[in-house]
Structure formats: structure tokens, C-alpha cells
Specification:
Strand content: 35-45%
Number of helices: 3
Structural class: alpha+beta
Largest sheet: 8 strands, antiparallel, barrel
Radius of gyration: 23 Å
Number of strands: 9
Order of helices and strands: HHEEEEHEEEEE
Distance between the termini: 52 Å
CATH class: Mainly Beta
CATH topology: Lipocalin
Strand order of the largest sheet: 1-3-4-5-6-7-8-9
């Protein structure tokens, strides 16, 4: 084989390898792999079984959802306009004032998984600000478009309310 033939074969091979990552070699990540990360809360609303809608944390809530690769999660959300307490020390605030502040705030942690076939996020609530939810599971339908994550149709096992939330990936 002459030198020109070897160079031609090398060029064709290199070109073929350059094209492969965009097709055969590059595989689509699983839905779970796509969800791993930190998400900023954009909006959340609830609807009771009668269909009455409300925004429990206002129309511009603050919050974060963290989904780690090991199947653990943490979520915190609240109203941005909550009134300040008389003291920053929890034990120096009345139970009434602390309770009022907690009404506009939610926090939870636990484990998570994805049902790839149903495109559903399943969270097992291990610790929750409202203890009645501990030990329950929450299931929400997933819609993922770019860096926007929409969780819809989650129904509270305690209240029966449907919860819809929108998050944006934090980069």
C-alpha cells in the first residue's frame, strides 16, 4: 500500500470517528440522569379537590430543589415577603409567631427515584416541616424542556390538593 492510500484511509477513519459521537456513541441520558442537579423554584400552585386554585407561597416564591445522583433530595420553599420575627433566635420567639412564619414556608428531605416509563418523579418524604407528611410518598409527572422542569399532578396524601411546580436548573 502506498503512502497516499494510507493517508486516505486515515482521513476517512478520522472523519468517521468525528461523526460517531453525535449519533451512535452519544447516548441519550436517562430521565433520572437529566434531573440530577439543583433547581430554582419559579412558581408553585395548588388546587383543592374542587379545583379551587391558590398560590401558597405567593406569585413569586423562593425555593430550591436539590436532586443528587445517589437518590437523595432536599426541597425548601417559601414566600419572599414573610414578616421578620421579634428575634432571630428560634427559642426566643413565641410559638404563635413561629407558627405563623411556618405557614408560609415548607421544607422536606428524603429519597427520590424516577419511573422512566411513566415519566414520573417519586419522592419518599423522610423529614418534613409538617410531621404528618413524614413516611409518605409523592408522585409528580415530569416535563423537562431544556433547563425548565415542570412537576405536575402531585396529589398530597394528607390534604388531597394537587400541586404543580415549575423549576429552572441552576448552573
Amino acid at each position: 500500500m502506498n503512502r497516499r492510500s494510507i493517508l486516505s484511509i486515515s482521513a476517512v477513519t478520522a472523519l468517521g470517528l468525528a461523526v460517531l459521537p453525535s449519533s451512535a456513541v452519544a447516548q441519550q441520558k436517562s430521565l433520572k440522569e437529566q434531573l440530577v442537579g439543583t433547581w430554582n423554584l419559579i412558581s408553585t400552585q395548588t388546587a383543592d379537590p374542587s379545583g379551587n386554585k391558590r398560590f401558597p407561597y405567593g406569585t413569586s416564591p423562593r425555593g430550591i430543589l436539590i436532586l443528587d445522583a445517589n437518590g437523595r433530595y432536599a426541597a425548601v420553599q417559601g414566600r419572599p415577603d414573610r414578616p421578620m420575627l421579634k428575634s432571630a433566635l428560634r427559642l426566643q420567639v413565641s410559638k404563635e409567631d413561629l407558627g405563623a412564619a411556618a405557614l408560609d414556608f415548607a421544607a422536606q428531605f428524603g429519597t427520590w427515584s424516577v419511573n422512566e416509563a411513566d415519566k414520573a418523579l417519586i419522592r419518599r418524604l423522610d423529614g418534613v416541616l409538617i410531621p404528618n407528611f413524614e413516611g409518605t410518598e409523592a408522585k409528580a409527572n415530569i416535563s423537562l424542556t431544556g433547563d425548565d422542569l415542570r412537576l405536575t399532578g402531585e396529589v398530597s396524601s394528607v390534604t388531597g390538593d394537587r400541586i404543580d411546580a415549575v423549576y429552572r436548573r441552576i448552573k
